[in-house]
Amino acid sequence: xxxxxxxxHVTDMIASSGPGGRVAKQKAGSLKHxxxxxxxxxxxxxPHIDAHTMMLHHDKHHAAYVANLNTALExxxxxxxxxxxxxxxxxxxxxxxxxxxxxxxxxxxxxHSLFWRAMSPAASGAPAGPxxxxxxxxxxxxxxxxxxFDDAGVKLFGSGWVWLAxxxxxxxxLQVYTTSGHDNPLMQGHFPILVNDVWEHAYYLKHENRRGDxxxxxxxxxxxEEAARRFERSDRSAEREWEGxxxxxxxxxx
Length: 254
Ligand SMILES: [Fe+2]
What we know:
This protein has helices spanning about 50-75, 85-90, 95-115, 130-140, 140-155, 205, 210-220, 225-230, and strands at about 30-35, 160-165, 175-180, 190-195, 250. It is of the alpha+beta class and about 250 residues long. A 3-stranded antiparallel beta sheet has the order 3-2-4, sandwiched between helices. Strand 2 and strand 3 (about 175-180) form a beta hairpin. Helix 4 crosses helix 5 (about 140-155). The longest helix is centred in the first third of the chain and has 23 residues, at about 50-75. Residues about 1-20, about 25-30 and about 245-254 have low confidence and may be disordered. The chain binds fe (ii) ion. Fe (ii) ion binds near residues 199 and 202.
């Protein structure tokens, strides 16, 4: 079944959306995916993440994924009304010729859109409520969870992402999860709650080759309110709303 986009919490990031991962056409012409604005200034996460890294990461790297996604779709108008998340979750319906480009660039777009919102300059420092209870249940305590997350991020070979995700099997427990490239846990049925980017472009200017330092230094900017919101919407009843969570951004061309 095609998922349906919910715009209730992401109206700032989605021009419009509808059933089947389709972005509603507002006027004639092809649709373009757009780079979502950062929800804070480049320097807002200093000193934990430096402004220059944030500028390059968002304005150059993420922007390139969006541009490459639009380029890949240029000759496939039937796919131009689909959201980035729909494309990522329906790669078998994407022509072989552009499948790798879509996987890399729709994934890069979706994951970075999640990543910006996973951080906040006004972070609380620790989870609360049902998410805090679930972390304690599944990892022992918050410190053990952070250690598991950091360890997974350090051990991930090459470029990828480390996640706190909720399994859709086995009672919906929380898991630390890693993906290579720009794959997303939903491609394997795991709903993403929290994410950190461990591509070198996320940390190399400040931490050089010390990925572990970057991971340890990231916790003060984690947006636990956003993680809690995602957790509370992550059960099966929310399945049809998942697609909009990645920040698929599209609008008609002029
Ligand atoms: Fe990145």
